[in-house]
C-alpha cells in the first residue's frame, strides 16, 4: 500500500534474520511528488532530500553506519521492504547509535511525522527484519541477564580468563553486523558494556583465553583476510591496546582456539587445525609470539568447532571442548604437555544447532568454567540467543540457562 504524505509510525514485532545486498545506490535526478514512491525499487528503502518524496533519491538496501553526502539531509522516505514487519531504523548519530533512534514500517515526511526532530538530522540507518531492534541497544551488543555471577576472589591460574575488565565477572565479546566489537557482562550497569571499535569485519577468526603477553590482562587473537595473525593486548578495562602482528600464513588454518596453558610452562598457548585435519599446538612465549609448533594429531577434519574452555575436569590442566560434524560434543582432557588424553563424550547430539561455542571461564560464579552457546536463528527465539551450560567438577555440563539476547548475525567469542 502506498503511504500517504502524513503516514504515521506503525508498531511491529521482533523478527529474526536479515537479507543484505549492496548498501545504497544514489539516483540524483529530481523526483516529482507523484512518482517518488513509484521510482523506489521493491525490496528497498528510499530516502529523499525534500518532503513528500521529492528531490534527490537514495536507494538503501542494507545498513549504513554513515551516510556520507546524505548526512543530515534526509527529509522523507519510502519503505518498500518485502516483509510486512520489516522496518527502517533512523539514527541521528553515526554508527547506528541507539540514542534518539526511531523505527518506521511505512513512508513519511519527517516534518509531518511524530518525530520532526529527525528532519535533516539522520546520520545512519538500518533496514530489514531486525531494524526495529537495532534502534535499541539489544541488537548492537550482547545483552546479558543476571546469570553472570561474581567469581570467587581466589581462582587458580587456569581459571583466570574471560574477564576483560578485571572486575570479577566473565565478559562476552561480540562482533555485530557492522563490524563493531562490543564487550559486555551486564545490561544495566553504567560503564560495563562498551564499544571497543569498528572494522572487525576484516577479521576471519577471533579467539581469546586469558593473558597472552604476560601483563595480567585478557588478550585476543585475530586473523585478517590476508592470513596475518594479530595479538590485541587487553588494557584491563574491557578494550585493547595497539595490536601487534604475530605472523603471516595463517589462512592455511581452518580453526583457531586460544586454550590456555597446554604445555605446563605457565604461558598461554594457541591451537590450530589445518586444511589436512592436523591439529597443532603453538606454545606461547609470554612475549606475543610462539615457539616451535607441536603436532597433536590428525583426523581433526571431523571437528568443526574448537573451544578453549579451561580446566573442565578439575585436574589443574587446560582442556579442549570440540564439536564434531555430527553435532556431538567432546571433552579432550589436557595432559599438560601440549596434547590431550582420551576424549570423553559430554553432548550426544544437537550441538550443530549452535552458531558458535565460546569458553569464557566461570560465568555463573561457582568457580568452575562454563560453556557459552550462541543459538542459530532457526533454533531459538530472538530473546534466547545466548545460553550458558554450567560446568561440573568432572567435565560434564549441566542443563543450560538463558544467558542473554543478541542479533543472530553477531559473532560471540
UniProtKB/TrEMBL annotation:
It holds the Pfam family Inhibitor_I36. Keywords: Signal. It comes from the Bacteria. Residues 1-33 form the signal peptide. SUPFAM superfamilies: Integrin alpha N-terminal domain (SSF69318). Coiled coil: none annotated. Gene3D superfamilies: Integrin alpha, N-terminal (2.130.10.130), Tachylectin-2-like (2.20.25.650). This is ATP/GTP-binding protein. It comes from Streptomyces hydrogenans.
Amino acid at each position: 500500500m502506498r503511504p500517504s504524505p502524513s503516514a504515521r509510525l506503525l508498531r511491529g514485532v521482533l523478527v529474526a534474520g536479515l537479507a543484505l545486498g549492496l548498501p545504497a545506490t544514489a539516483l540524483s535526478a529530481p523526483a516529482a511528488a507523484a512518482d517518488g514512491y513509484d521510482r523506489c525499487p521493491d525490496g528497498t528503502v528510499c530516502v529523499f532530500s525534500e518532503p513528500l518524496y521529492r528531490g534527490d533519491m537514495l536507494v538503501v538496501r542494507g545498513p549504513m553506519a554513515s551516510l556520507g553526502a546524505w548526512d543530515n539531509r534526509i527529509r522523507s522516505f519510502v519503505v518498500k521492504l518485502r516483509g510486512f514487519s520489516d522496518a527502517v531504523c533512523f539514527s541521528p548519530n553515526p554508527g547506528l547509535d541507539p540514542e534518539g533512534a526511531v523505527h518506521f514500517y511505512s513512508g513519511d515526511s519527517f516534518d509531518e511525522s511524530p518525530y520532526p526532530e529527525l528532519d535533516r538530522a539522520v546520520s545512519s540507518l538500518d533496514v530489514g527484519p531486525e531494524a526495529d531492534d537495532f534502534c535499541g541497544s539489544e541488537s548492537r551488543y550482547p545483552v546479558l541477564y543476571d546469570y553472570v555471577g561474581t567469581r570467587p576472589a581466589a581462582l587458580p591460574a587456569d581459571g583466570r580468563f574471560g574477564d576483560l575488565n578485571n572486575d570479577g565477572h566473565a565478559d562476552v565479546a561480540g562482533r555485530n553486523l557492522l563490524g563493531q566489537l562490543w564487550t559486555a557482562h551486564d545490561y544495566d550497569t553504567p560503564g560495563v558494556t562498551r564499544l571497543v571499535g569498528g572494522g572487525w569485519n576484516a577479521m576471519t577468526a577471533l579467539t581469546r583465553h586469558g593473558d597472552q603477553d604476560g601483563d595480567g590482562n585478557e588478550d585476543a587473537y585475530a586473523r585478517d583476510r590476508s592470513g596475518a595473525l594479530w595479538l590485541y593486548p587487553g588494557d584491563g578495562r574491557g578494550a585493547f591496546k595497539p595490536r601487534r602482528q604475530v605472523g603471516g600464513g595463517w589462512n592455511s588454518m581452518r580453526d583457531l582456539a586460544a586454550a590456555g596453558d597446554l604445555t605446563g610452562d605457565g604461558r598461554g598457548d594457541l591451537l590450530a587445525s589445518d586444511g589436512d585435519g592436523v591439529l597443532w599446538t603453538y606454545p606461547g612465549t609470554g612475549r606475543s609470539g610462539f615457539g616451535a609448533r607441536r603436532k597433536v594429531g590428525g583426523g581433526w577434519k571431523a571437528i568443526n568447532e574448537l573451544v578453549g574452555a579451561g580446566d573442565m575436569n578439575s585436574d589443574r590442566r587446560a582442556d579442549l571442548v570440540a564439536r564434531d560434524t555430527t553435532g556431538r560434543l567432546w571433552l579432550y582432557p589436557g595432559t599438560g604437555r601440549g596434547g590431550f588424553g582420551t576424549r570423553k563424550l559430554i553432548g550426544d547430539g544437537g550441538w550443530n544447532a549452535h552458531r558458535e561455542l565460546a569458553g569464557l571461564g566461570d560465568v555463573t560464579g561457582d568457580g568452575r568454567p562454563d560453556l557459552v552457546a550462541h543459538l542459530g536463528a532457526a533454533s531459538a527465539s530472538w530473546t534466547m540467543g545466548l545460553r550458558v551450560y554450567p560446568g561440573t567438577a568432572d567435565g560434564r555440563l549441566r542443563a543450560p540457562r538463558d544467558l542473554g539476547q543478541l542479533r543472530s548475525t553477531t559473532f560471540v567469542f
